[in-house]
Amino acid sequence: MPDLPFIGDIRAELDDRFRAREVAVTRGRDLIRAAANAIRALHRGEWDVADDKLAEADSIHREIVGHISTQPAMFDAGFFTDAVKELAEAHLTRALFRGDPLPGPADLSIDPIPWLHGLGESVGELRRRLLDLLRDGEVEEAERLLEAMDDIVDQLAEIDYPDGMTHGLRRTTDVARSLTERSRADLTTTVVQERLSRRLDAWNERAADGPPPVGEPGPASG
How far apart are CA 121 and CA 44, in angstroms? Predict the structure, then answer.
């Protein structure tokens, strides 16, 4: 039996890694939950609740970083990047809804790659908000969100690096582009319907005052 005195040191190191991993996995789920609750509050217009949940998510993020700070490999592990991606998405969604400047990766203390994925996935939240606005007749605000969606897709499309570096950012970009085009179609349909409705209302008002002069177009004309 060979003498392997360093095995004990290896086991101690792996024990430290395992403990750090368990904290990161468990608290990562809590971070994802807090970020998701923040987004739900944003859609309900509960800004104070959303801010409280974002503060909670930020606190959990700092806690996780403290536990894995001596294990740099874990910063690229899926269980961690997935959690911070959700954190980025929540912060970015809040800023986009409010029309505020977007917080960058340095502002959130996260790596650029999960930040970019969070930005791409925020497009889905913008589409949901846009549809709510269209139902409420707030076309101008819906147009602002569509412009933001266009800008996000354009910026993501310029991040042209291998998928191995960006963890599949191209697919996230493709999904964001599809959602943006569907939102454009929904907004266009609403705008056209509103325009036709206004024309019909105007024609009905004129018709109520008497027959239009000879040669004046009806509601289907022009």
Answer: 19
Please write the tens of the pLDDT for every residue from 168-179: 999 999 999 999
- The runs of H, that is alpha helices, within the chain are 7-43, 47-68, 78-98, 105-108, 112-135, 139-157, 163-166, 169-208
| Tokens coding 167 | 């963890």
Residues 147-164: tens digit of each pLDDT: 999 999 999 999 999 999
Backbone angles phi, psi at 125, to 5 degrees: -70, -35
* Burial class of 193 by CB neighbour count within 10 A (0 to 12, 13 to 18, 19+): exposed
Q: At what angle do helices 78-98 and 47-68 cross, to 10 degrees?
A: 150
Q: How far is CA 80 from the centre of its chain?
A: 18
How far apart CA 39 and CA 92 sit, in angstroms, is 10
| CA dist., res. 71 & res. 22, Å (int) | 13
pLDDT tens digits, residue range 8-59? 888 888 888 899 899 999 999 999 999 999 999 999 999 999 999 999 999 9
Q: Is 72 helix (H, G, I), strand (E, B) or coil?
A: helix
